[in-house]
Amino acid sequence: MNIEEFREFCLAKKGVTEELPFGPDTLVYKVAGKIFALTSLDTEVFSVSLKCEPNFALELREKFDYIGGGYHLNKKHWNTVNGDIAPTKQLSELTNHSYQIVVEGLTKKVKAEFGF
Question: Taking the domains of the chain in order of start, what are their residue ranges?
Fold first, then answer.
């Protein structure tokens, strides 16, 4: 998956916005105002940071050398995935996992506002 395909995948999800809150080099995807994915625009290698359930995050890091602790993020809850190496299906599944974690953490009121 490349960055353009990743962008389309994220934006197709319900309630997702694309923003540059940390400057012009970091693309951020949010659902209902909460971040679920970040990627750099100024690197040659496409990588993305995604939220992850803590135990699953550790399991992934042990199993795959292209998945590491979240770059400049809380490594307990975030993984950074090399999108140039990760299989498209796996990157899609991990993105869905991240999105779902954020949606599940929304209040009932916000879920109702966004139709979740």
Answer: 3-106
Distances (CA, A) of 102 to 45, 50, 66, 84, 85: 26, 10, 23, 25, 25
CB count within 10 Å of CB 22 equals: 12
Judged by DSSP in three states, 65 sits in coil
- Average pLDDT (62-66) is 96
> pTM for the complete prediction?
0.93
Q: What's the CATH fold of domain 3-106?
A: Aspartate Aminotransferase, domain 1 (3.90.1150)
For residue 114, the model assigns a pLDDT of 87
Which residue, chain included where needed, has tokens 């990588």? 47
